[in-house]
Amino acid sequence: MAKDAADRTHPVSPREHSSPPLQARTCRTLRALVRRFSADESGNYAIITAVAMPVLVGMAAYGTEEGMLLHTQKNLQHAADSAAMSAAVAVSGGANDNGKAQAKAVAASYGFVSGQDQTVVALNSPPTSGPNKNNPGAIEVIVTQAKPRLFTGVWGSTPYIVRARAVAVPQGQPCVLALNPIAAGAYSEQGSVTVNLVKCAVIDDSANSSSALNVGGSSRLSTSFVGVVGAVSGNNGITATNGIVTGYRSVPDPYADVNYPSYSGCDQHNYSTNKDVTISPGVYCGGIAIKSQAHLSLNPGIYYLDSGSLSMTGQSSLTGTGVTLVFTSSSGSSYANASITGGASINLSAPATGPTAGIVAFGDRHMPISTSFKFAGGDSQVFTGAVYVSKGALQWAGNSSANQPCTQIVADTIQMVGNSSLQVNCAGFGIKAITTPATLLE
After folding, report:
1. What is the SS3 assignment for 35?
2. Where are the alpha helices (DSSP H) in 93-155?
3. C-alpha distance from residue 276 to each of 310, 316, 343 (Å)
4. Can you tell me the distance from the alpha carbon of 394 to that of 352, in angstroms, rounded to the nearest whole number?
């Protein structure tokens, strides 16, 4: 008992205690906490995200704006392509502003109005750059638009400039159209004929597989473009600025919906003169004959040749302004035709307004195919306007000096029988353009 009491009152030595001191435990706990904190990565994401946030937002903003700019650029390119093509077609149809008004109108239809919303639609001919820079017939359209910065405005205020460019070439406004769909040589030259078509084209609707268009012998054809549904014979004799295309699409008759006014009776029968005389519009049954050395002047209006012929011989001459010669037949047979030979002088211009506007010679569409029309007055022959004989077999030799500003030939078949030069500077003359497509080059 005494020993047990002594044991209970004896102090315990630190060495004999089973638990570590408080200081040691505290140190170990702190070290463990530090190790856990240093090993814990869960908070790093927040830190990294906070640091990277401006970059991430910038990338998202730039990507969004880039997508919007690409969308705008795509629309601009569509507008530029269509504007260039439309301008080229307008030029081939006789537009005298290089198609600028047409280009701006087409771009506006895509929502890009020149002068609005920092948009500029510019047209250049020839182009200011590219492989067609020296091609005077090529038309360049450049559409630009300044787009303000949105999300990326924090890095700068300079707007983005979005740009699209297209280049097209008109295939040439046609001044010659052969309508026959099957004939061999629907357009033809033989012998040593030289034909110079100044900035205008030849279109041949014949699908003949061997020689829809034929330039034979030592004949030469110089033109802006040749389009033939069928095949070409005599390519070596052809110089075409914008090329020769076979397998071309058929081009419609531009005057198919034009009709001359009805008429009745006869004002003259078998009219003939060997003098210098002036006559008035009317119905000339049996035709008009102008004898050698005679000079016939026509007052403005429509002259109906009902059967018979317009014939000119020797050194005769025929003049008139605002005139249409209608070749027809009231009986449905013996349709009027024309025979003008070398040495005869003719200078006629079409009316600019009225039912026969732009047409200086009009062949009835009911006449037999291949009705003869021989306009072979040579250098003394000038027709200003359209010579339109859709069923006629036309022979032509007239004015090789290129001083005839506006002549358009539309016939069933066309044979050039003498040196000739044609051009279609026809603004204000009332003719209908022969519309052909354009080619997008760039």
Report:
1. helix
2. 100-109
3. 17, 10, 17
4. 24
CB-based burial, 69-104: b 16+ in 10 Å, e otherwise: eeebbebbbbbbbbbbbbbbbbbbbbbeebbbebbb
DSSP 211-251: TSEEE-TT-EEEES-EEESS-EE-GGGEEETT-EEESPPPP
Q: Is the peptide bond before 170 cis (omega within 30 degrees of 0)?
A: no
Given a contact cutoff of 8 angstroms between Cβ atoms, the answer to whether 277 and 255 are in contact is: no
> CA angle, 195 as apex, 193 and 199 as ends, to 5°?
170
Bridge partner residues of 289 (DSSP)? 272, 311
Q: Cβ(218)–Cβ(194) under 8 Å?
A: no
Task: Tell whether the torsion through CA atoms of 228, 230, 231 and 232 is positive or negative.
Answer: negative
The token pair at 86 is 């439309």
**Dihedral of the alpha carbons of 411, 416, 417, 423, in degrees to the nearest 10:** 100
Q: Which residues pair with 108 in a beta bridge?
A: none
Query: Treating both helix axes as pointing N-terminal to C-terminal, what angle do 44-92 and 100-109 enclose, rounded to 10 degrees?
Result: 140
Q: What is the pTM of this model?
A: 0.70
Say if residues 206 and 223 touch (Cβ distance below 8 Å).
no
DSSP per-residue letters across 322-337:
SEEEEEE-SSSSS--E
Do strands 194-198 and 173-178 pair parallel, antiparallel, or not at all (unpaired)?
unpaired
CB 325 within 8 A of CB 362: yes
Question: How would residue 239 be classed by pLDDT, with cut points 50, 70 and 90?
Answer: very high
pLDDT per residue as tens digits for the range 59-111: 555 556 666 667 777 887 888 888 887 887 777 666 667 778 888 888 888 88
AA letter at 380: S
Give the DSSP per-residue string, 53-70: HHHHHHHHHHHHHHHHHH
* pLDDT tens string 279-330: 999 999 999 999 989 999 999 999 999 999 999 988 899 999 999 999 999 9
Q: How far apart are CA 166 and CA 180, in angstroms?
A: 36
Residue 29, burial from CB neighbour count under 10 angstroms (0-12, 13-18, 19+): exposed
